[in-house]
Amino acid sequence: MILKAFIVGGLICIAGQLLIDLTSMTPARILVLFVTLGVVFYAVGLYQPLVDFAGAGATVPLLGFGYALGKGVEEAVRQNGLIGSITGGVTAAAGGISFSIVMGFLCALVAKSHDKS
Predict the structure, then answer these.
(1) Taking the model in full, what pTM does it have?
(2) Rounded distance, CA 34 to CA 20, Å?
């Protein structure tokens, strides 16, 4: 299972690196593209089989964040109706978002910030 996760996660990362190297897309645009593709792939039923096959190799990269948002919206709409389309994605991704904020804060406390110039 670990090998499958490593291979699938690595292939997703290779796709991102190729987009950086071979196109004029900025990393921010690639981030948005990957998250959006994760939602679209989940909506059309392509991403769940990949998650079932690779586990964390498919859920940890940015495509997996889009997958979590889409899955959260679907479940919240089923439970709460239309309001779930607003709350579902944030609720599903709250753990990852919270962890990112806390780690960013801790890194800011430890690192010395300075201008790049």
Answers:
(1) 0.79
(2) 13
